[in-house]
Design goal:
Two copies of one chain form a homodimer. By secondary structure, chain A is an alpha/beta fold. Chain A has three domains: about 5-45 and about 230-420, Glucose-6-phosphate isomerase like protein, domain 1 (Rossmann fold, 3-Layer(aba) Sandwich), CATH 3.40.50; about 50-225, Glucose-6-phosphate isomerase like protein, domain 1 (Rossmann fold); about 430-460, no CATH class. The first copy, chain A, has helices at about 15, 25-30, 30-45, 60-75, 90-100, 125-135, 150-170, 185-195, 215-225, 225-240, 250-265, 280-295, 325-330, 355-360, 365-385, 400-420, 430-440, 445-460; strands at about 5, 80, 115-120, 140-145, 175-180, 195-200, 270-275, 295, 305, 310, 335-340, 390-395. In chain A, the strands form three sheets. Chain A has a five-stranded mixed beta sheet, sandwiched between helices. In chain A, helix 8 (about 185-195) links the parallel strand 5 (about 175-180) and strand 6. In chain A, helix 3 (about 30-45) packs across helix 16 (about 400-420) and helix 17 packs across helix 18 (about 445-460). The longest helix of chain A is centred in the C-terminal third of the chain and has 22 residues, at about 400-420. The first copy, chain A, starts with a strand and ends in a 6-residue tail after the last helix. In chain A, about 60% of the residues are buried. At the A-B interface, strand 1, helix 6, helix 7, helix 12 and strand 10 of A face strand 1, helix 6, helix 7, helix 12 and strand 10 of B.
Chain lengths: ~475, ~475
């Protein structure tokens, strides 16, 4: 079984030139620190925030996930995830990467498993409209929230619970599976009392690191994804990213190269898959990077306001949207391509000799060649313009290679936290917004905050046109 | 009929504080320059690159678009756009904004018009899979390329032309509508010879400014969008954005505020709709901003490497992904919210008194209230953290208000080009990538470049793990 690879030639001075390139010596100079980081993180892998390291080895949970998934897939046309952020992005990424590219729109007779929907917003038009395409009684719902206090998720839980009860009475219980904390939070007591079937969001695993827990595994297993191979790939990546030698460890190298780039003013980290299927891996990584590494304070408690801004792009599509900026704009970006060695299908461009030179050369090539040529061409153009870029290469697109990729990026994020000297596993910045939402909706205990907000609104000078 | 509004209170020193806020005096100081910019741009609105200014008034073209759209909508189940970049993003934005939120997945009996697909990538798996969900013989295809040399579009043109011919013989011609240059390029000669029906990409209108030309209008009219109201909204915005007084002109104000922010180090411009329907307006704007305003050279020919990086985000979804970064990360962003006053549907959160305080307060509220409270809460949290933000407000979501918004953003982009002193209507940076693609695919005339690339590859030092 093949391994993913990480090619960072175009980050280095040899390709990128003196001004923008990184020198071997700079990487060598990080060798000791890199070794210390690997040791430190790996020695704490059973600690809080880091327990996702062991998700590839959860045999019992995996068996339970697969058993219930088989049952649900046999009974229902649809699997609907009710979750947001880390409770949604993993399933979305795996769906795009590993199911038929038009899975949800396939006619029933061509679709190997249930349709998979992830409802990660509360837009009333969008949710109302959902009932026009999915019959709740033909669907199982996976409600995912560790704390059980996520307003978006709980609201939808209430919505679909009622929709099911209206149609099925108390039998509705069988169609809702709740993934939440083992003991605490607001949902576990309801699981017990109402006898929902449930999975556990493991202790010490934050939402953005939960894709390989039941959070990501269960709904994607229902839809037909090979979760065994996914975890096997992750396990392989675990072995490979423990290596203490910097030049041998692609997670550590990726972390160090991104960090060196950030220190040189490359505040923006673009992830650009040349694969329609991998577009949502970039969306998943966007959360992982932003929430983990953007922090106001370092570990000493000093204000640092650090953090690369992740940007998701898509090859070839965004060549016609963002490439002008990446080539000619400020030198504030580093681009990470995701490349696929060989695609599942070979699709030929039919020849037509029209007498138009811009048309005639294409016939006889394949779309595979075209996509690869465009990816290569973009890499060449960026590099010649002095723009730092690197590539993760998946020899082919399957659960085993995607498992490697996701896990490698998670490990790289943990190592990056050490380089930035910040806590990569909290997200203190989102608290203020949650509190203001509670206050505005009149949740008990938030009356003073509501008063404050109303006073501030009255006093505000409004500028509008 | 109601107007959109632009609220920039949270850009100003009164809300944002001394350190991050902009002063009234700074805007007043731009009044004379602003007036000169409006005059200069408006006086050249019939010139090259700017002729999209008059698209709201194209009566004859509009009648032709609607007539053919009606015909196609009556005959086919699907409308498939073959185009990329500016030939795709307008239709995608309008589809999301103005059709049923699950339009393409609605059962035939519930769907008021054909399904609308936009194939803006060349991924072989994705394109192969498309044949599993769409029967070419039941579809009309709109091939869009001004030059007729866009490799991605031409390849797909060849693919679907053959698919149709295999099924329909020469009758296939009736199902392909070509939107291209009036005279030049590679497609116009084929239109004439093969007698495809066609529309014109108007002279002096770049792809990213073409949404209100037949490029964006025809496919969306087929799917059932009210293109009259769209243009009426744009015409209104045209009147309003000609105002020479800076405080009265929301396009000019938006341009000036963004430019002042950029000069203070806010290199990143986030557009964050609190509306699932507007998510692809942010994707459309992302191209408009990046290609128009990211430039290596100013008009004097000096290297400046300017350009904000656009980022698309989505409320409430990205509160659980990017908000940590926006609140606690570097002060390098300005956020533009898109807010909707009232949604089409009112959707109640059903009450359930569970004894859990994190659950019980939600029942009886509506998803509309929840979405608005979260949008307000995010705005408050950002502002209190000193993070610049502003909002475009659409009183409701319809073709008239969306037409206003798109046109206003286009005008703002033209005005911004003057502030940056760059040419907002070219995209020289993408040429190198195109040439490299031609070279790699063996297009005649690019043999030397191919040789160069091969030599460089042989000599390259590879760093990979």
């Amino acid at each position: 079984m093949e391994s993913i690879a990480f090619d960072f030639s175009n980050m280095m001075v040899e390709q990128l030139g003196e001004e923008q390139g990184i020198r071997r010596e700079e990487i060598n100079a990080m060798a000791a620190r890199g070794r210390a980081i690997v040791q430190s993180v790996q020695n704490h892998r059973h600690g809080d925030g880091l327990r996702w390291f062991d998700l590839p080895y959860q045999k019992e949970t995996l068996a339970e996930v697969k058993a219930l998934a088989r049952q649900m897939a046999g009974r229902y046309h649809n699997c609907v995830v009710i979750g947001i952020g880390g409770s949604a992005l993993g399933a979305i990424a795996l769906r795009s990467a590993l199911l038929h590219p038009w899975h949800n729109q396939l006619p029933d007779e061509k679709r190997p498993g249930p349709r998979l929907f992830v409802l990660d917003n509360v837009d009333p038009d969008w949710l109302s409209g959902f009932f026009d395409v999915v019959a709740p009684e033909e669907s199982c719902f996976n409600v995912i929230s560790k704390s059980g206090s996520t307003a978006e998720t709980i609201s939808q839980f209430l919505l679909f619970r009622q929709a099911l009860r209206e149609r099925l009475g108390d039998h509705y219980i069988k169609q809702m599976i709740v993934t939440t904390d083992a003991k605490g939070g607001s949902l576990r007591p309801l699981v017990r009392r109402e006898t929902f079937r449930s999975f556990v969001v493991p202790e010490g695993v934050g939402g953005r690191f939960s894709v390989l827990s039941p959070v990501g595994l269960f709904p994607t297993a229902v839809a037909g994804i090979d979760v065994d191979a996914l975890l096997a790939g992750a396990a392989r990546a675990d072995q490979e990213t423990r290596h203490e030698e910097i030049w041998q460890n692609r997670a550590l190298l990726y972390a160090v190269l991104q960090w060196l780039s950030y220190r040189r003013g490359k505040r923006i980290s673009v992830m650009m898959p040349y694969s329609q299927a991998l577009r949502d891996v970039a969306a998943w990584y966007r959360q992982l990077l932003a929430e983990s590494l953007a922090k106001r304070k370092n570990r000493a408690g000093e204000d640092v306001f650090v953090g690369q801004t992740p940007v998701k792009a898509l090859g070839v599509t965004d060549q016609h949207s963002q490439m002008q900026l990446y080539i000619d704009g400020p030198f504030d970006k580093v681009v990470t391509f995701l490349r696929v060695g060989s695609f599942h299908k070979e699709l030929t461009i039919p020849p037509w000799q029209t007498g138009q030179s811009a048309v005639d050369y294409l016939g006889g090539h394949s779309f595979n060649e075209l996509l690869q040529a465009e990816g290569d061409a973009t890499t060449i153009a960026l590099t010649e313009a002095g723009r730092a870029n690197a590539s993760f290469i998946l020899p082919e697109l399957n659960a085993y290679t995607v498992g490697q990729l996701l896990y490698t990026l998670e490990v790289a994020t943990a190592y990056s936290g050490e380089l930035y000297d910040i806590n990569a596993f909290d997200q203190p910045g989102v608290e203020a917004g949650k509190v203001a939402t509670y206050a505005l909706l009149g949740r008990a205990g938030y009356e003073n905050r509501r008063q404050e907000i109303e006073t501030a609104r009255r006093r505000a000078t409004r500028f509008a046109v």
